[in-house]
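Data availability excerpt. The first of two example chains:
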Amino acid sequence: MSEVHVHGVTHAAERAAIEEAGARAVVHGELAAVVGDAAPDTRAADLARRHWKVLEAIAATATVLPVRFGTVMAGDAAVADELLAPDHDALRARLERFEGTVQLTVKGTYDEAALMRSIVEGSPEIARLRGRVRGLSEAAGHFDRIRLGEMVAGAVEQARQQDAARLLEHLDAHAIDRRVEPATGTDGAVNAAFLVERDRTAAFGRALDAAAKELAGRVELRVIGPLPPYSFASEEAAAWA
């Protein structure tokens, strides 16, 4: 058989969920690897989309350990003999650790105008320096503008930390675990992944709604998921997503 892409590992009993996601199950013992046939002419971007789509379709109803995108093996026999068989019990234990959970990723984006307004209103020193440089030429105000930029950057970082802390206060009680990543871009407010019991996702959503109301007009929040435990499974083995 030709090479196969390995998407993840789940319980052997989840064959129906795997097939509904458009993939195949390679079963060994109590485990099933989620695989798809490798098509050499397929673009990497299309392969990546299929990888995430398959995993997220399975995660909607079943527990699945994601394997890092781009993991290719020689065929179904290699998947069974080299991936599932040697680590069968350890993989089963990892599945049990994540049983009944999903990842919900929360991203927050600032309204930059509202953020800057709050920073200027909250710092008389920044307000004074901002007013001062407006009346100076580029050359005359060079060092003041550098100083202003540093002060604003510091105030933005402080605001990020404070807003993230407020968000986590709302959500931590509804999650088993969380991972906070640096927010990206000048308008990034928060980027956090939460490991949530599947039957508590509604309560998590209500807490997120409460946080969104508290941060309204300043930060726009969105949730991505339910997802496989990408941010949590990856800490345990280098081969995982």
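And the second chain:
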Amino acid sequence: MKRMRFLVAILVIWLFLFYNVERLSEPINITDVAYTFVPLVAALTVLIPRMRKVPVGLTLLVFILTFLVIKTLVKSRVWGLSLPLTVTEACVIAVTAILARWVSNGVGEFERAINRITIGVADRLPEPFSTGQAEMYREVKRARHHQRSLALMAIGVEEESIQIALDRMVREVQHVMMKQYVLSDVARELCAELEEYDIIARSNDHFLALLPEVAPEQLTDLASRLHKVISERVGVTVRIGTASFPSEALTFDSLVEKAVREMNRQQELEYSVSPEHLAVEHHIA
């Protein structure tokens, strides 16, 4: 964390010096294009995590070439007597991009550390739904092509089972952290209980598990086993909605929709038959 503060401080000081360079040295007259482009370089480098994967040399080349093109388009002098100024501005862009890359890498390390604390480390954890969706879709196509059975489960965690009794603000923070912790434990147990060829993805606060070669009649026993295992090992109650191909749905989207709808319906049914809800209805009657 100290290193992160240090990097941010260096970037701020560098930008401060850049915007005051004309006061420090009268012969230097930075163009308006540079004044606009330099903070844009810093912002893009820090705000776009994917840029961390691009080689630094390629990033600098793209930034500098873009700067030269923009400077040419706005009819600002680039070559001739303005060449020393252009070189100076290009160097400023390069230094800014490198410093911003350091800050971005520090942010990435901090995010990974938080993930390790709140989500934990496991050999096999569900991918985000946006990543696992394509693989799930391929499995549905394969099942349709080979006329094979296939099932999809939507698994959500009961909010009441992970409530933390703390003061309002502290409870909210603790709730988020504990929720992530519980979800990581649920994910770990799902990965341990389901087969290697099953595909598990996380979508918001629930999981989607695609189960190739699983027939509809097998779902009840499998759901009961997951209920029991997660309740015993994690201490939370899960809702499980299911959908089978091709008896209940024919497309991947319809499988997801039906499984999630059934999972949510279980929560509504539990609420409608809860003792508190029945007591309110009795009182109203």
